[in-house]
Recover the amino acids of this structure.
């Protein structure tokens, strides 16, 4: 169950002063990538760095890393047990995410990290991570419509919630590609706090960071990737002098090229889970904005020479699936609909009915073959591999579906 608010996390961490400084990142899309970029750059610069993102990808503890390595399961379970015992003893009744947040923060203490890169779970103002009072820089990534039941029905309302992470005296970086409504809401909150919210633009890289311009010229990047890298570079520029005075920020920027963020435009091979030898695109796009990014990539990279695309899709229950899938699936495409399994530590997350997904996709005029597979994701993949016959295949619609696929693939390789 999702319960926003800071009272429970405050009690959980009341006797646990945080021994590290934080970079706090909010947004609808891109905050995970920015977190990955910053963690990589800081670690490269010799700063002991922790990273906390959500949701987890394969295992519940892989959302916490120390110097780019997933925390050991034994340490995670040890500290999680301590946090849960405190919750029970004090009768706090913390949510699963609050328990996870407290666990991550205490692991950072235990591991003596210098900087923790912390991604907001949902919103910002009332998110458990907003208990942070030791923030070096705040970052607000791209904002779109998501979690409206909790955050508001307009971009402006959602942006106000995201801007709730801003704190007096703390430098703020904002993705300049945000729409006017989001930008104005963020600027308004910044003015209330006496802050400058500095927008960064992917088409106008920082002149003090010439390596960023060179990187953009060398790599084939989409606009959102440049925007996320620009936000990370601006945040690093603000943070590094505070933790490693004298280091030249610009020398670290080329390392952005080697960062991989699993589940986002990720190319994988399905063997031995399936017989297909050709690569498959795996992407956790789960809202209209991220689907637009995926659609642009698929059109540019996969729909060459008139190729149709075969899809395996799932979605979370309650999502507005029409704008999600109608923006990426085109006439002539084949589609397998399925559902993801239970999400460890997030029992409230349920999958949409694959039959409902099929009905939605069948509304696309000229659509190819559509097949529902209920909870048989492996069966959906086998069918899709057969239909694609070596041509483009994309698995998308939910990070939880991505997680299941990677988990099945790991089990197939180890079995």
């Amino acid at each position: 169950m999702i319960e926003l608010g800071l009272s429970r996390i405050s009690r959980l961490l009341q006797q646990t002063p945080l021994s590290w400084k934080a970079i706090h990142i909010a947004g609808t899309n891109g905050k995970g990538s920015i977190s990955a970029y910053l963690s990589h750059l800081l670690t490269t610069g010799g700063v002991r760095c922790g990273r906390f993102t959500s949701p987890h990808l394969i295992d519940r503890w892989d959302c916490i890393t120390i110097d780019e390595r997933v925390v050991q399961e034994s340490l995670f379970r040890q500290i999680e047990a301590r946090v849960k015992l405190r919750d029970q003893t004090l009768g706090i009744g913390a949510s699963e995410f609050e328990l996870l947040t407290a666990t991550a923060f205490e692991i950072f203490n235990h591991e003596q990290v210098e900087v923790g890169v912390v991604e907001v779970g949902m919103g910002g103002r009332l998110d458990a991570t907003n208990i942070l009072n030791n923030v070096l820089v705040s970052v607000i990534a791209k904002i779109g419509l998501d979690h409206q039941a909790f955050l508001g029905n307009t971009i402006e309302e959602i942006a106000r919630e995201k801007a709730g992470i801003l704190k007096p005296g703390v430098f703020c970086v904002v993705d300049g590609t945000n729409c006017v409504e989001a930008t104005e809401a963020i600027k308004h909150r910044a003015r209330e706090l006496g802050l400058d919210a500095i927008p960064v633009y992917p088409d106008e890289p920082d002149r003090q960071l010439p390596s960023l311009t060179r990187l953009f010229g060398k790599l084939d990047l989409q606009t959102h990737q440049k925007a996320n890298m620009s936000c990370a570079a601006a945040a690093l520029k603000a943070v590094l002098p505070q933790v490693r005075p004298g280091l030249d920020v610009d020398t670290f920027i080329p390392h952005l090229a080697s960062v991989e963020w699993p589940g986002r435009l990720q190319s994988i091979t399905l063997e031995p889970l399936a017989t297909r030898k050709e690569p498959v695109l795996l992407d956790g796009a789960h809202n209209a904005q991220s689907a637009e990014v995926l659609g642009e990539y698929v059109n540019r990279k996969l729909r060459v020479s008139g190729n149709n695309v075969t899809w395996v899709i799932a979605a979370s229950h309650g999502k507005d699936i029409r704008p999600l899938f109608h923006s990426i699936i085109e006439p002539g495409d084949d589609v397998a609909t399925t559902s993801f399994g239970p999400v460890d530590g997030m029992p409230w997350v349920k999958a949409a009915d694959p039959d409902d997904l099929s009905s939605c996709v069948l509304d696309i005029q000229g659509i190819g073959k559509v097949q529902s597979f209920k909870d048989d994701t492996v069966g959906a993949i086998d069918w899709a591999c057969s239909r694609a016959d070596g041509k483009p295949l994309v698995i998308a619609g939910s990070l939880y579906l991505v997680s299941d696929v990677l988990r099945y693939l790991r089990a197939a390789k180890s079995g």
Notes: The chain has a mean pLDDT of 92. The longest strand covers residues 21-26. Residues 6-258 form a domain with the UDP-N-acetylmuramoyl-L-alanine:D-glutamate ligase fold (CATH 3.40.1190.10). The chain has 14 helices and 14 strands.
